[in-house]
Fold this sequence. Notes:
Layout: H1 2-25, E1 41-44, E2 47-50, E3 55-58, E4 64-69, H2 75-84, E5 92-93, E6 98-101, H3 107-144, H4 150-183
Antiparallel strand pairs: 1-2, 3-4, 4-6, 5-6
Helix pairs in contact: 1-3, 1-4, 3-4
Amino acid sequence: xxxxxxxxxxxxxxxxxxxxxxxxxxxxxxxxxxxxxxxxxxxxxxxxxxxxxxxxxxxxxxxxxxxxxxxxxxxxxxxxxxxxxxxxxxxxxxxxxxxxxxxxxxxxxxxxxxxxxxxxxxxxxxxxxxxxxxxxxxxxxxxxxxxxxxxxxxxxxxxxxxxxxxxxxxxxxxxxxxxxxxxxx
Length: 185
């Protein structure tokens, strides 16, 4: 029962960290990253379809994207989807592919993005702490129901706290890396 509770907490914490990483990957850093286009949904034969399922996306120089659709008929739909996604980039088409140039970030915009990533990471920390609270509540209930002793509960809570600390450190490092990436010109 103790190991099940700890494993559940560990699983929830790892999901929280993964979700935080996913959300941070969408924050623009000034360098072209394919994940920046994950939110772009193209109307493909009337169905909203992720951009990466209708075209090949490449980052030739770190400052731009080359989007090569598998069917040239969807170029107009791709351009419309990019504009609709409000990425701050204007698509340029030559009839065969779409080019996107990633604009330079101003100092003020960089600071705003740091605030944004700070909030995303703090939400991740809150989620990790919530998983700890749920695990500790479950352990207290097990002890109250006489399924485990106080010593077992105490050891298990210490282990849950160690797991929590590891995940919080991981989130802190992710924040530091992303902030450094954002502030690098």
